[in-house]
Automatic annotation (TrEMBL):
Name under which the protein is recorded: Protein required for mismatch repair in mitosis and meiosis as well as crossing over during meiosis
Pfam families, per database record: DNA_mis_repair, HATPase_c_3, Mlh1_C
Organism: Komagataella phaffii (strain GS115 / ATCC 20864)
Gene3D superfamilies: 3.30.230.10, Histidine kinase-like ATPase, C-terminal domain
Transmembrane spans: none
C-alpha cells in the first residue's frame, strides 16, 4: 500500500536540522566561536571533556545577551544579525540564521550564563529542544557569555556511535581553534581539558600572525613563512588578500589543510586549494606539503554566504578571476626565491667546518645510557640525588634559515688561515693553570700558551652554528625537577642593580619554549610561572656542561638576549650556550681529561680560528730559539 504524505513532527524536523549543522563537536565549537567573536570578545576560554562529547564549555568576555532575549535564544531563526532577506547582500558577521544554538539545544543539555555591561548580575538559563526550561536565574558572573554543552548527541545514538574516540575529536577541536586564533586579531584563545591546570593551546591577543603560527604549528613552519599580499582589484571585487605561506625551503610530508578565510569566514575552498597545491608541486619535492594561510576580502554584495548549512562554503562573483590573481601573486613570490642555490654555495665554502659528524650521519634512533654522563646537581639545588643523563641524537635536517646562513658567512669572513692551520695540526701538551684557564699546545717546532676558555667558547659557538636545529638531546632525569624559577632566584639574590621581575623573565622564556626545543634541543615543561628544565643540547659527544652554571645561563638568556630580532636572537642564544659549555674552573680535578680527550680533539677537527683568537695564543718557546741559547752557552 502506498504511504500517504504527511507533515513531519516538529521534533523530528528540528533534530534533522540539528544533524545538518552540528555534525561533530568541532562544528558546535565553530558556531560558538563565531558568536563570541561577533560579540566583540577579546578573550575566549574553552574547556572540553571526552573530545567535547561529554562537556564543551566556552566562556567569552563579549557584550553578553539581554535577559529579555533569553526566552527565545534557542528558538530556530531567531537572530540579531538580520531583519530582511536583503540584509544577506551586505552581511558582515559570522552567524546570521539563528540555527546554531537551536540545533545544539536539540541534541545536548545546554546551559547559558550571560551578563551585559549594564546588568546588575548575570543570568543563567537552561534549554531543552529549543525551549527555555523555567525562568532565568540571577547568578554572580562577569560581563560576557558562558555556553555549557553537556552530553552532546545523547539522544542521537547513531551519531554518537559514528564518532571516534575523544582524542580524535580533541585534535579537530584544537585545529578549529588554531585557525580562528591565527586569523582573529586582538582576541586571546585558550583550550584545556576539564580538571587540568595546563592549557592544551594558548594564543595571546597581541601576538603577530607569525607568532601565532609558531605557537600553534611550531617553529619549523613559522621560521619558513613568507608574507603574501595581493594587489586590490576593484573590477573583479577583490578588496584585499594577504596572509602567510611557507617558502620553497620548507619540506614536510605532514599535511596541514590550507587555511582560507573569506570575508572573515573560515571556509573550505577546493578550487583554490587545488591551484595552490599544483603550484607548489613544481617547487617542493614529491610528497611534501606547504603551509598556506590566506585572508581574502571581497565586496559583500558579490558574496553569497547562504549556500551551506554549516557555512563552510561560499559563492561569489568573478571567482575564477580572483583565484587566478591570487595564483599569479603566489607564483611570482615563490619564483623570486633562490634559497637552495645560496645554501649549496655556502655549504661548499664551509664544507670542512660544517660536515655532519659521524654519529649524526649514521642517524642513530635509540636512547643511549652512558655511565660517563653520571653527575650531581651542585650546591645551588638542595638535593643529594645523583643525576642521570640520557642522550639522543636526532636525524639531521637541512638548515636554510637566512639568519643562520648570514652568521655562518660572517664567521667565514673572519677566519685566519694561519691560526686555523695551527689548531688543526697542534699537539696538546697539558694543563698549566686551571685558575687562569691556561694550557699548553705544540705546533711544528713552537710551544704556545693558550687561554682554553676563549678557544672553547669560540669552538662551541661554531658547533652551535653548524649543528643549529640538529643538536642531539641531553635529558636531565631527576626526582627533584630543576625549575627555572629556582635558578633565577639564586642569581637575583646576588644582584643589586635593577632587573626585570622574575615572572616577566619566566613568561618571556616560556613563550619561546617551542623555538628553544626545535632549534636548540632545550626543553621546558610545566607552566609559564614555574617552567621545568627537561633537556639541554649535546654540543660535544660525551661532554656534560657544569650544572652550577645554569642559574647564570638562564638569567642571561632571559635578560641579555634580544628576542625582537631573529638574527640577534639566534646569535645571542648560541653565545649563551657557548658560555654554559666552557669548562668551569670548579671542574679543576677533571679538567685535564676533559681538555685532552674532548675539547682539544674537537678543536683540532672543527675549529675555524677567527682573527680575534690571536690574543688568546702566546708563543712561549720555539726550537730554533732554544738552539741559539744553547749555542751561546
Amino acid at each position: 500500500m502506498t504511504s500517504r504524505i504527511k507533515a513531519l513532527d516538529i521534533d523530528v524536523v528540528n533534530k534533522i536540522a540539528a544533524g545538518e549543522i552540528i555534525v561533530a563537536p568541532e562544528n558546535a565549537l565553530k558556531e560558538l566561536l563565531e558568536n563570541a567573536i561577533d560579540a566583540k570578545s577579546t578573550s575566549i576560554d574553552i574547556i572540553i571533556q571526552d573530545g567535547g562529547l561529554k562537556l564543551l564549555q566556552m566562556t567569552d568576555n563579549g557584550v553578553g545577551i539581554y535577559k529579555e532575549d533569553l526566552p527565545i535564544l534557542c528558538e530556530r531563526f531567531t537572530t540579531s544579525k538580520l531583519s530582511t532577506f536583503e540584509d544577506l547582500n551586505s552581511i558582515g558577521t559570522y552567524g546570521f540564521r539563528g540555527e546554531a544554538l537551536a540545533s545544539i539545544s536539540h541534541i545536548s543539555r545546554l546551559t547559558v550564563t550571560t551578563k551585559t555591561k549594564d546588568s546588575a548580575c548575570a543570568y543563567r538559563a537552561i534549554y531543552q529542544e529549543g525551549r527555555m526550561v523555567g525562568e532565568p536565574k540571577p547568578v554572580a558572573g562577569k560581563d560576557g557569555t558562558q555556553i555549557l554543552i553537556e552530553d552532546l548527541f545523547y539522544n542521537v545514538p547513531s551519531r554518537l556511535r559514528s564518532l571516534k574516540g575523544g582524542n580524535e575529536q580533541l585534535s579537530k577541536i584544537l585545529d578549529v581553534v588554531a585557525r580562528y586564533a591565527i586569523n582573529t586579531d586582538g582576541v586571546a584563545f585558550s583550550v584545556k581539558k576539564a580538571g587540568d591546570t595546563l592549557n592544551l593551546l594558548a594564543v595571546r591577543a597581541n601576538n603577530s600572525t607569525k607568532d601565532k603560527v609558531r605557537t600553534v604549528f611550531g617553529s619549523a613552519v613559522a621560521s619558513e613563512l613568507l608574507p603574501i599580499a595581493v594587489e586590490k582589484s576593484e573590477e573583479i571585487g577583490l578588496l584585499s588578500c594577504e596572509g602567510q605561506i611557507t617558502n620553497t625551503s620548507y619540506y614536510s610530508k605532514k599535511s596541514v589543510s590550507p587555511i582560507f578565510f573569506i570575508n572573515g569566514r573560515l571556509v573550505s575552498c577546493d578550487p583554490l586549494k587545488r591551484m595552490i597545491t599544483q603550484l607548489y608541486s613544481s617547487f617542493l619535492p614529491k610528497g611534501h606539503k606547504p603551509f598556506v594561510y590566506l585572508r581574502i576580502d571581497i565586496k559583500r554584495e558579490n558574496l553569497d554566504v547562504n549556500v551551506h548549512p554549516t557555512k563552510r562554503e561560499v559563492r561569489f562573483l568573478f571567482e575564477d578571476e580572483i583565484f587566478q590573481v591570487i595564483f599569479q601573486s603566489i607564483q611570482a613570490k615563490l619564483g623570486s626565491l633562490d634559497h637552495s642555490r645560496k645554501f649549496v654555495t655556502t655549504q661548499s665554502v664551509l664544507k670542512h667546518q660544517y660536515a655532519p659528524q659521524e654519529e649524526i650521519t649514521k642517524k642513530p634512533q635509540t636512547l643511549l645510557r652512558t655511565d660517563d654522563l653520571q653527575s650531581k646537581i651542585t650546591a645551588f639545588i638542595n638535593t643529594t640525588n645523583t643525576e642521570s643523563f640520557g642522550t639522543i641524537v636526532k636525524d639531521r635536517v637541512t638548515v636554510k634559515l637566512s639568519s643562520i646562513l648570514e652568521l655562518r658567512q660572517q664567521l667565514e669572513n673572519k677566519v685566519s688561515e694561519d691560526l686555523t692551520n695551527m689548531f688543526a695540526k697542534h699537539t696538546y701538551v697539558g694543563l698549566v693553570d686551571p685558575n687562569r684557564r691556561l694550557c699548553c699546545i705544540q705546533y711544528d717546532v713552537k710551544l704556545f700558551l693558550v687561554d682554553y676558555a676563549s678557544i672553547s667558547y669560540e669552538l662551541i659557538y661554531q658547533i652551535g652554528l653548524s649543528d643549529f636545529n640538529n643538536f642531539g638531546t641531553l635529558y636531565l632525569e631527576s626526582e627533584k625537577p630543576i625549575t627555572i624559577r629556582e635558578l633565577l632566584e639564586i642569581v637575583y639574590e646576588s644582584i643589586d642593580t635593577s632587573v626585570p621581575p622574575i615572572d616577566d623573565v619566566l613568561e618571556a622564556l616560556f613563550e619561546m619554549k617551542d623555538m628553544l626545543l626545535e632549534y636548540f634541543s632545550i626543553e621546558l615543561q610545566g607552566t609559564e610561572k614555574d617552567p621545568i628544565l627537561r633537556s639541554l643540547p649535546i654540543v660535544i659527544k660525551g661532554y656534560t656542561p657544569s650544572i652550577g652554571k645554569l642559574p647564570l645561563f638562564w638569567y642571561r638568556l632571559g635578560t641579555k638576549v634580544d628576542w625582537s630580532s631573529e638574527k640577534e636572537c639566534l646569535d645571542g642564544i648560541l653565545r649563551q650556550i657557548a658560555l654554559l659549555y666552557v669548562p668551569e674552573v670548579s671542574e679543576a680535578e677533571g679538567i685535564e681529561k676533559i681538555l685532552e680527550d674532548l675539547i682539544f680533539p674537537t678543536i683540532k677537527s672543527r675549529l675555524l680560528a677567527v682573527d680575534s683568537l690571536s690574543k688568546s695564543v702566546v708563543e712561549i718557546a720555539n726550537l730554533p730559539g732554544l738552539y741559539k741559547v744553547f749555542e751561546r752557552c
